Amino acid sequence: MPFIIAIDGPAASGKGTIARALAAHFGFHHLDTGLLYRATGAKGGDPVLAAQTLTSGDLNRSDLRSAEAGQAASRIAAIPEVRAALVDFQRRFAAQEPGAVLDGRDIGTVICPDAPLKLYVTASDRIRAARRAAELGADEAVMLAELQERDRRDSERATAPLKPAADAVVLDTSHLSIADAIARAIAEADRARQGPVIRTSPW
Ligand SMILES: Nc1ncnc2c1ncn2[C@@H]1O[C@H](COP(=O)(O)OP(=O)(O)O)[C@@H](O)[C@H]1O
Ligand SMILES: Nc1ccn([C@@H]2O[C@H](COP(=O)(O)OP(=O)(O)O)[C@@H](O)[C@H]2O)c(=O)n1
Predict the structure, then answer these.
(1) Residue 161: inside a domain, yes or no?
(2) Percent of the chain's residues with pLDDT above 90
(3) 123 annotated as ligand-binding
(4) 3-state DSSP: the chain helix, strand, coil percent, rounded to 5?
(5) N- to C-terminal Cα distance for the chain?
(6) ipTM value > 0.90
(7) Strand ranges (E), the chain
(8) Which of 124, 149, 185, 200 is 20 to 30 A distant from 52 in Cα terms?
(9) CA–CA gap between residue 30 and residue 66 (Å, rounded)
(10) Residues 164, 171: contact at Cβ < 8 Å?
(11) How far is the CA of 97 from the centre of ligand 1 (A)?
(12) How far apart are CA 157 and CA 86, in angstroms?
């Protein structure tokens, strides 16, 4: 059975950084599921058809990381038929041996609810905005408004809203370096790979 690590959290919390590092550490496959929604939004036209006909070429566009692509993604991500069109691809990806790390908004809650490790990565709004502003060379106040609008839309939608799974481990990276955040995630994965602690009676 492949080992699945589900990572969710709000925009620019450090999900992708941690997911890539976990995949490299354990030799697992990694899928940034946000790219599926960014590519669908960027395609234009009917978003349901765009999601149903997504190709690897669509995912390789160079303009998908922009704030505009993020906004377009979160609008089309609220459409249930768009989400439904992307489920099978994500589940097939997760089923690859020896394991897979998927990061997004609904991985632990909808796509892989049986994943043995679910991380909910978060950080304060201000810190996330500062990190994304540095990454994109953009204004911090503009990024703060963008992230907050997107987080609100993602959390309030009826289908697969952004929220921690009941059994998710919350990792607040506000005051963690990248190296420390990765080390915590690896420690959680090592713990989860050992399986649940079964207490046997001494008798
Ligand atoms: N713990 C951290 N400390 C400082 N910067 C971080 C940390 N984690 C991520 N970053 C930086 O913040 C930005 C957003 O991180 P990313 O992993 O892309 O977030 P997400 O996938 O949640 O959108 C990137 O520029 C990344 O290098
Ligand atoms: N599993 C996922 C992943 C992304 N998304 C949507 O896609 C948008 C872009 O996701 P992303 O992960 O690329 O965004 P960042 O966290 O990198 O800013 C999000 O704001 C969500 O609206 C989603 O609905 N479900």
Answers:
(1) yes
(2) 95
(3) no
(4) 55, 15, 35
(5) 33
(6) yes
(7) 3-8, 29-32, 99-104, 117-122, 169-172
(8) 149
(9) 21
(10) no
(11) 27
(12) 17
What is d(CA 163, CA 198) in angstroms, rounded to the nearest whole number? 29
pLDDT digits (tens, 9 = 90+) for 13-61: 999 999 999 999 999 999 999 999 999 999 999 999 999 999 999 999 9
Range of the domain at 81: 3-193
Q: What percent of the chain has pLDDT over 70?
A: 98
Pocket of ligand 1 contains residue 135 by CB under 6 Å: yes
Residue 200 — very low, low, confident or very high, per pLDDT cuts 50/70/90?
A: confident
pLDDT tens digit sequence for 56-90? 999 999 999 999 999 999 999 999 999 999 999 99
70 lines ligand 2 (CB under 6 A): yes
Q: Which ligand minimizes its atom distance to the CA of 181?
A: 1
Tokens of 51: 């999601």
Q: Is 131 a member of any domain?
A: yes
